[in-house]
Amino acid sequence: MATPSKKWAHEEVCLLIENYEANPILWDIRHPDYRDRVKKNLVTEKLANNFNCPVSEISRKLHNLRNQVSQELKKIKQKKAEVGQKKQRDGPIFRH
To answer: 16 lies in which domain range?
Structure first.
C-alpha cells in the first residue's frame, strides 16, 4: 500500500521552492551536472532530509509544483491571445 502524501504547510512549500531555486542542478539545463542523475539524486536526498520526508515525496511535490506553474502560464497565454483577438474585432473599421 502506498504511503500517504505529506501535508505541506504554505511556509514549507515556500521553503522548498527556495531550496529548489538554490540548486540549479535540478532545473537549469545549462548546468554542467544537470544530466548527472547521481548528483541530482544526492541533492534531492538532501532536500528530503531537510524536510523529514522520503525522496519520493520531494520528487512528487516538485513535479506537482512544476505542473501548476505550467498550467498558470498556459492560462496567462490564453488570456493574452483572447484579448488580442477581441482588440482586432473591436478595432476601428476603415472604409474607403
So the answer is: 10-83
Residue 90 lies in a domain: no
The answer as to whether 4 is a domain residue is no
pLDDT confidence band for 63 (50 / 70 / 90) = very high
The dihedrals phi and psi of 83, each to the nearest 5 degrees, come to -65, -40
Write out pLDDT tens, residues 5-38: 889 999 999 999 999 999 999 999 999 999 999 9
For residues 51, 9, 7, 54, the Cα torsion angle rounded to the nearest 10 degrees is -10
**Contacts with 10 (C-beta within 8 Å, 6 or more apart), sequence order:** none
Give the angle subtended at the CA of 30 by the CAs of 80 and 15, to the nearest 5°: 70
Whether residue 3 has pLDDT greater than 90: no
For the chain, the domain total comes to 1
Q: How many CA atoms lie within 13 A of 21 on its CB side?
A: 7
